[in-house]
């Protein structure tokens, strides 16, 4: 049932057919929850940091903040990428200024000598960091997603553009919205025209899920970089997605980057064969942005309802098993 | 009589004969939202920062004066997007009401051609 | 002779009491006050939400925010006025757009635009799209195992409403006393008037930069009526100022012989029944922040079209609110400057308002 009394919520049931199949609403709205998540989620799991092609040359770096920790991700003289805390024990100061991967800088290895090293690993050109002392392997967290993505020539594509939007809702609200398509028919009317929703499937794995959206026969999707005639959206816990639309020779990534409990930044990066956007590619990004804006409106409206505090525990539908997985992972992380 | 400093932005609801002055154009937008929510009334700017007028290039206006152009011209003045209130103030110079501008911003956003790098701050794609 | 009650509160002593009053004023109107009041005041007492006559037809609704909560107030098929949280029972999305009672919405059902869950006017879940009935996208679940959503268990959250005449109040508390108990004697006075025979004439909304209780103390003190020989009667949760019909045949009485009445109902609404003009007004104070309050004034007259005298009344009362707004803002500045003034003035109503605010804060 839908629970309206805060005192009567239960932890997420692992069984989706149970009425307590959703994460209690306070985990979305409590102003302190992001502080807890910095440790329990962003301090534990592998978190996407950026794309290796943006620091192709030795000595190039970008910075990225995960939880409260500002990191420097740098290509070493040996060609390997390493990550460091952006803090020098010697000077007590940050080593470099904030530098997004879209404007990568260059720093000498000697400047990072006193900085503490942080674990980094990769899936193809996608770089992940981990702040935990004793993390599971990235291969374990990513599961079959790792082999699938590494079978694709992701590294042959160049960064085309980045659009970062601030959105007024908890990051998990957007994550849930991304992960299901029960809202598509009513809210993505342009996009859904080319999708056979009945033939589509939402595949759930331990820490990631894949939305396979089957294109209908009319859609020209020869430009896709994967085999199946479908759009493929992969969500990797906690806050990374890779989007293969099937209608463009390229792909996109999202970082669902929390700012605080009530806001996140969606960092959308688009990759094409060639860094400069063609007219078609620009149009493709605009279409993708249209989907984003439609979703922003939905999640901000959901947030407006959630933050009234009226709802204590939602109840998910049978095809929201991806959202259910997301909620379970959050619950597991909090309880760990 | 003491000299009173006037904040650079002011707006009023003519139906209710109430007004609000502010240094920040986005506060005028917040006022409009609060007011519109319970009345359905529109709100009109009665004063805008003169510097804002200068930021929007008058010469181009006749040819390219769409809302997206105004955003494109204003966003250069700000680090993280043009405040939606500044955009509305600039548009009010051309006779578009605050409510109309917000509606148009929403429509263009929904096409993907405007985005918010920060809440209520706009940038053109 | 009128029986005007000029009793004063106990005078503040010259020793430590002044200071502790100032401390308590800061607690009651300071930065954290509104967050506490969302629970202690707006989450607990009956709060005026709107006028039943604005939604005469089944399915008509308006929205109203109380504290952090957003309510839908709707007339049911049984002709009763009901209220629900404007929050979908599926995943908590806001459902209908903000809709003022002056421009109500309508329809036979309430639908959430997110996943199209649809509720009837009793708040029961009536339909969900097909994707909530089978598991076609979920390879790990047989459609036969799909749980069924229940029209009541997955219905909207009911919010308690009750009325004084056509005035609708909502209560967000768990086990509140009755509305009649809270409103007290004013309820009988108001219900004896034919309030439902009047039509909404004007809504005027303005804002004041001070705490809502500070404005209430300044504006709802009934001084205008008291100055005109009105009688102040203080009740448990508010007060009434009335002019007795003294039968002196004075020419400014209303033709129907009704006397002027001013009722302040804790926490945030006053009802002013006018004397010179055949009509009444409600003024609700909605806190926007600890130091900003939105005033929603609604005027009701015999006929929705305003006569010149009615227009004049709207003008003068609006002017009075504006003057009181300036007084309240000055008082706020004084408080911030460290003045030992308390919430209200030193008179009886100010003391009552302090008592009510303190009582809520202590609870």
TrEMBL record, chain A:
<dbReference type="InterPro" id="IPR036922">
    <property type="entry name" value="Rieske_2Fe-2S_sf"/>
</dbReference>
<feature type="region of interest" description="Disordered">
    <location>
        <begin position="1"/>
        <end position="23"/>
    </location>
</feature>
<dbReference type="GO" id="GO:0005506">
    <property type="term" value="F:iron ion binding"/>
</dbReference>
<keyword id="KW-0411">Iron-sulfur</keyword>
<dbReference type="Pfam" id="PF00848">
    <property type="entry name" value="Ring_hydroxyl_A"/>
</dbReference>
<feature type="domain" description="Rieske">
    <location>
        <begin position="46"/>
        <end position="107"/>
    </location>
</feature>
<dbReference type="InterPro" id="IPR017941">
    <property type="entry name" value="Rieske_2Fe-2S"/>
</dbReference>
<keyword id="KW-0408">Iron</keyword>
<feature type="compositionally biased region" description="Polar residues">
    <location>
        <begin position="1"/>
        <end position="20"/>
    </location>
</feature>
<dbReference type="GO" id="GO:0051537">
    <property type="term" value="F:2 iron, 2 sulfur cluster binding"/>
</dbReference>
<keyword id="KW-0001">2Fe-2S</keyword>
<dbReference type="GO" id="GO:0016491">
    <property type="term" value="F:oxidoreductase activity"/>
</dbReference>
<keyword id="KW-0560">Oxidoreductase</keyword>
<dbReference type="InterPro" id="IPR001663">
    <property type="entry name" value="Rng_hydr_dOase-A"/>
</dbReference>
<dbReference type="InterPro" id="IPR015879">
    <property type="entry name" value="Ring_hydroxy_dOase_asu_C_dom"/>
</dbReference>
Automatic annotation (TrEMBL), chain B:
<protein>
    <submittedName>
        <fullName>Uncharacterized protein</fullName>
    </submittedName>
</protein>
<feature type="domain" description="HVO-B0008-like N-terminal">
    <location>
        <begin position="11"/>
        <end position="47"/>
    </location>
</feature>
<dbReference type="Pfam" id="PF25214">
    <property type="entry name" value="HVO_B0008_N"/>
</dbReference>
<dbReference type="InterPro" id="IPR057410">
    <property type="entry name" value="HVO_B0008-like_C"/>
</dbReference>
<dbReference type="Pfam" id="PF25215">
    <property type="entry name" value="HVO_B0008_C"/>
</dbReference>
<dbReference type="InterPro" id="IPR057409">
    <property type="entry name" value="HVO_B0008-like_N"/>
</dbReference>
<dbReference type="InterPro" id="IPR036388">
    <property type="entry name" value="WH-like_DNA-bd_sf"/>
</dbReference>
<feature type="domain" description="HVO-B0008-like C-terminal">
    <location>
        <begin position="72"/>
        <end position="122"/>
    </location>
</feature>
TrEMBL record, chain C:
<feature type="region of interest" description="Disordered">
    <location>
        <begin position="313"/>
        <end position="363"/>
    </location>
</feature>
<keyword id="KW-0560">Oxidoreductase</keyword>
<feature type="compositionally biased region" description="Basic and acidic residues">
    <location>
        <begin position="313"/>
        <end position="334"/>
    </location>
</feature>
<keyword id="KW-0411">Iron-sulfur</keyword>
<protein>
    <submittedName>
        <fullName>Rieske (2Fe-2S) iron-sulfur domain-containing protein</fullName>
    </submittedName>
</protein>
<keyword id="KW-0408">Iron</keyword>
<dbReference type="InterPro" id="IPR001663">
    <property type="entry name" value="Rng_hydr_dOase-A"/>
</dbReference>
<dbReference type="GO" id="GO:0046872">
    <property type="term" value="F:metal ion binding"/>
</dbReference>
<feature type="compositionally biased region" description="Basic and acidic residues">
    <location>
        <begin position="349"/>
        <end position="363"/>
    </location>
</feature>
<dbReference type="Pfam" id="PF00355">
    <property type="entry name" value="Rieske"/>
</dbReference>
<dbReference type="GO" id="GO:0016491">
    <property type="term" value="F:oxidoreductase activity"/>
</dbReference>
<feature type="region of interest" description="Disordered">
    <location>
        <begin position="1"/>
        <end position="31"/>
    </location>
</feature>
<keyword id="KW-0479">Metal-binding</keyword>
<dbReference type="InterPro" id="IPR036922">
    <property type="entry name" value="Rieske_2Fe-2S_sf"/>
</dbReference>
<feature type="domain" description="Rieske">
    <location>
        <begin position="46"/>
        <end position="148"/>
    </location>
</feature>
